[in-house]
Write a structure and sequence with these properties.
Radius of gyration: 23 Å
Shape: elongated
Distance between the termini: 45 Å
Length: 251
């Protein structure tokens, strides 16, 4: 039993260390609040933890036997590690492909833009036409303004594509601009919490309670939704400076 526990401990320590390094780098680089919440990646992370930290070491505990030959034991543990590596690779690629790249203000809402929202050709075009805002593999999340183009034909083309399920302006880096340049337009879109879309009535009550607890007025024009593929977040801004003072979830 002592042999099994030792094998289990070593396997658990190794698996936990590798997984912690990968998730830690992704979290502190791209998925910090509210990234992890808006992308709703909990299921992927849970699968990675279950396979790499729970299932793998547990199977080692079961199959580890001092009576087995070294070759047989190495083979059995190798199979387990191979399955772990497959799960780890799948989860890591999924998280990397969906990493947050931008928090974009466009029209009347703030939106999360993930890596796979931007087509490779559009990213390449953006690096040519708008290099200051185009994404690279090392790009970290940043706040930008993504207005529709002034040209009516281009504008209509983007709107039509978005309505039919295609790419919106937030997936076209060539149109991205500085966050600060969009603040005058953003100011006109601020609403009271009760008037903000994307939240149910009971969620708005939770949001107002959180605002009151933080000493923020809930009856001023200071709120705008921040949306993603997961649950939305309420962005609360200082009406004077237009700086984001808080980001509240409705849970």
């Amino acid at each position: 039993m002592q042999f099994r526990l030792k094998a289990f401990s070593l396997h658990l320590l190794s698996s936990a260390t590798v997984l912690t390094l990968i998730l830690g780098c992704l979290y502190f680089g791209w998925y910090r609040w509210p990234g992890w919440y808006l992308t709703d990646v909990t299921k992927v992370v849970v699968v990675m933890i279950c396979v790499d930290v729970v299932l793998g070491p547990t199977l080692t505990l079961i199959i580890a036997n001092q009576k087995k030959s070294r070759r047989e034991l190495t083979r059995d543990i190798g199979i387990i590690v191979a399955v772990q590596l497959c799960a780890l690779a799948y989860g890591s690629v999924s998280l990397w492909s969906g990493r947050p790249l931008y928090y974009a203000f466009s029209e009347n809402v703030l939106q999360l833009v993930q890596a796979y929202d931007i087509d490779a050709n559009e990213a390449k075009l953006g690096r040519k036409q708008n290099p200051s805002f185009a994404p690279h593999w090392y790009s970290l999340p940043r706040w930008i303004w993504a207005p529709l183009p002034q040209d009516p034909d281009e504008r209509a083309k983007i709107v039509t594509a978005a309505l039919s399920g295609g790419g919106d302006v937030i997936s076209l880096p060539k149109y991205f601009k500085r966050w600060e340049d969009g603040l005058p337009s953003l100011r006109s879109q601020l609403k009271k919490v009760d008037d903000v879309a994307y939240f149910a009535k009971n969620e708005k009550k939770i949001l107002k309670d959180k605002m009151k607890a933080a000493g923020i007025a809930d009856d001023q024009l200071n709120s705008i939704p921040l949306t993603g593929r997961g649950p939305s977040v309420l962005a609360v801004m200082d009406p004077a400076s237009l700086k984001i003072t808080a980001l509240f979830s409705a849970k």
